[in-house]
Amino acid sequence: MLDKLVGMAMLIVATTVFLYYTAWTLLMPFVDAGHPLHDFFPARVWAIRIPVILILLGSAVVGSFLGMVMIKGNRKQAAKAKAAAGKKKA
Questions:
Q1: What are the tens digits of pLDDT across the range 31-62?
Q2: Using CA atoms, how far apart are residues 57 and 51, in angstroms rounded to an integer?
């Protein structure tokens, strides 16, 4: 039951963010600059900056994770090779 509730909450949040961003980037350029609706949205330059920042941050996280996995894998492989070399000598 909890997983369905969490899934529904994530779906609602994702849909809300998508609709807000779509209205901000696609509809607001056609609304007059003095209209009070502009008070609900940041400057249009942030419509580009926010996704770029999120992509860079996500790429850094994924790259760091892959680097850590590769380093741990090399350590295990080196330990196995060292153990195998020790058995050959004995």
A1: 999 999 999 999 999 999 999 999 999 999 99
A2: 10
Could you tell me the two tokens for 54?
């999120």
Distance CA 22, CA 27 (A): 7
Q: Quick one: tokens of 59?
A: 């790429």
Count CB-CB contacts under 10 A for residue 18.
10
Distance CA 85, CA 82 (A): 5
The widest CA-to-CA distance across the chain, in whole angstroms, is: 84
Q: What are all long-range contacts of 37-44, with beta carbons under 8 Å and residues at least 24 apart?
A: none
